[in-house]
Structures are given as structure tokens and as C-alpha cells.
Write a structure and sequence with these properties.
By secondary structure, this protein is mainly alpha-helical. It has 3 helices and no strands. InterPro entries: NADH_oxidoreductase_modular (IPR051285), RibonucZ/Hydroxyglut_hydro (IPR036866).
């Protein structure tokens, strides 16, 4: 399964509808966790991000989306 094709659209939709208005707080939280060795991201709903590649991918996307740039 192509990871991006499978998850990016839904992840962006979730971010935009639920998290999007908290861009500055998202950036602050991502700065705080940047030095941690994160093994898994397990939200209350949605996919569990388990691999280093998927964790890096979604945190990078959240950082980009929270900056409100194209």
C-alpha cells in the first residue's frame, strides 16, 4: 500500500478540520518533542504511527500545515 496515497488526504482533512486553528500551539508542541525518541504516536482515533518513517512523515506534515504556508 502506498503510504502517502492511503493516509495523506485523510490526515490533512483531520488536521484542517480539527487541529488547524491551533497552528501556533502545534508548532510549540512539535518543538518540545523534537529531541525525543518517539516510538509510536497513538491518537484517540485515527491511525497509529508506528515506524520511524511514518512518525517523521506526519510530524513534518503537521509542522508544515501549522505554518500556514503553501
Amino acid at each position: 500500500t502506498d503510504f502517502v496515497a492511503t493516509y495523506e488526504e485523510e490526515a490533512r482533512r483531520y488536521y484542517t478540520n480539527i487541529v488547524g486553528k491551533y497552528g501556533p500551539q502545534v508548532q510549540n508542541a512539535l518543538r518540545k518533542i523534537s529531541s525525543l525518541d518517539i516510538k509510536r504516536i497513538a491518537p484517540l482515533h485515527g491511525p497509529i504511527w508506528r515506524t520511524p518513517e511514518s512518525i517523521q512523515y506526519i510530524t513534518h506534515k503537521y509542522l508544515h500545515w501549522s505554518s500556514y504556508t503553501a
